[in-house]
Amino acid sequence: MRCARALCAALLLASACTIERAYVGNEFGELPEGSVVVGQTTKREILELMGPPDRILRQYDGDVFVYAYIRRNASTFSIEEPVITNLMLFSYQKTQEKSDRLVVFFDRGGLLSGLGFRRGTLQLERF
Question: Under 8 Å CB-to-CB from 122, ≥6 apart: which residues?
Answer without folding.
Answer: 98
